[in-house]
Write a structure and sequence with these properties.
It contains four helices and ten strands; from the N terminus they run βββαβαββββαβαβ. It is globular.
Length: about 170
């Protein structure tokens, strides 16, 4: 499934009529914002909101060694890892994608695909995402399931890969 709008917001709430800017705990020095993600990174959000996950992919500066270490047994361009205790929740969560107009947004972080607006945003459209696992398959994303994300986090921090770590505060500590 391809969406026709550039920017998205994913939510388990199908009733949002308007998105108001709010303070983000990871950016306490920035004013309140409405957050959106671009299409390339949208698969990192095909998960329940609180599900800890790590997405990673190669970029131009990724070393051959890291490519072999992290991607030698897959044809996927992106990999997302979750902890096993979240699998059932992923299979039962109903998620909705909100489509946003680009007009009031600017790119906060190109590598992460984060776009923000300081204005109230009315979504253009809202659609059910459907099966989250099926959406990952359609996006050519490999899903890895592990007891803990911590070892992967530690390995990726020292790698040349690009990565995104979402809701890690909810991850197992070991």
């Amino acid at each position: 499934m391809r969406w026709i709008y550039l920017l998205f917001h994913f939510s388990e709430d199908p009733t949002i009529q308007s998105f108001m800017p709010r303070q983000h705990p990871a950016y306490p020095d920035k004013p309140p914002m409405v957050w959106a993600i671009d299409e390339e990174r949208a698969p990192l959000y095909f998960f329940p909101r609180d599900c800890p996950r790590i997405g990673y992919w190669a970029i131009e500066t990724t070393t051959t060694e890291d490519q072999l270490t992290f991607f030698s047994h897959t044809t996927a361009k992106k990999i997302v890892a979750i902890e096993g205790k979240w699998l059932e929740k992923i299979m039962t969560t109903k998620l909705y994608v909100y489509h946003f107009p680009e007009s009031s947004f600017y790119c906060l972080d190109r590598g992460a695909g984060y776009y923000v607006s300081h204005e109230e945003v009315q979504p253009i459209d809202r659609k059910p995402v459907g099966s989250l696992l099926q959406r990952l398959v359609e996006a050519d994303v490999e899903l890895r399931i592990t007891p803990s994300l911590v070892p992967l986090k530690n390995a990726l921090i020292h790698s040349s890969l690009h990565f995104s770590m979402v809701r890690m505060r909810n991850a197992q500590l070991s």
